[in-house]
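Dear colleague,

Thank you for sharing your sequence with our group. We've completed the structure prediction you requested, and as agreed, I am returning the results in plain text so they can be pasted directly into your records. Please verify that the sequence below matches your submission; if there's any discrepancy, let me know and we will rerun it promptly.
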Amino acid sequence: MVRRADEAQSAAGVTTIIESLDDARLADYRIIAQPAELLRCGLFIVEGRRVLRRVVDLPRYRLHSLLVTRTALDALDDIRPAVESRAPIYVVSQRVMDDVVGYEIHRGCLALAERPAFASLENADLTGARLVIVLEGVNNPDNVGGIFRSAAAFGVDLVVLGPNCGDPLYRKAIRTSMAATLQVPFVAAGAWPAALAALRAAGFRLLALTPGTDALPLDSLERALTRVALLLGSEGDGLSEEVMACADSRVRIAMTGPAESLNVTVAASIALYHFR
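Please find the predicted structure tokens below.
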């Protein structure tokens, strides 16, 4: 049973050593391998010391609790006061942590944070935005995380999540992105593909990335285009024909080898570098 946020916050400032697997305060961590249950409870998992440090620096993410080994807590000593001011800290042995979670936690550091409300494109402030990514059907967490990592590296202002996309706050996506999914703003597309028309109305040029030989070579496009929305499709099928028909231009990355296409994360990175 996940405790209410106010109950967790009332214990902020308390660091507690827990030795029993049956301790009720560990119940929240028994569901971290169940993404649907975490989503239902309005929580997401923070895994690893580096990601936790990013969360502590982002006050919009409200920490629910922290579960660590003594070794991990010692390594986090510099941010311990900041964590304790926001959430209770539970210290356990490596064995207890692994048994509660159900798999081995190599980093000895887990936290639960409250999931913020999922914003929609229709409510997004696009003022000043120059580079946007739009995803359709990209559901592999490694690819979601990889795209966000490149988005952070190349100055993307917003990621728009179309239908059947993976959760940027899934623990593997966060870890793969090096916590970029916590930093780069993202919104739900809403009505699809009507959202693309809304981006065009806001002044964005819609560029659909495809390996099709009839598409424009990426390097033929001006690097300093005023406003670009880069459309990226699923790992297997790419963008749907419906979305391709909405694009202002179809764009390809020239290749010389036998490969028919690039992984979507690699393709996104190359295109973002071009428009950085």
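Summary note from our side: The chain has two domains: 5-114, 121-275.

Kind regards,
the structure core
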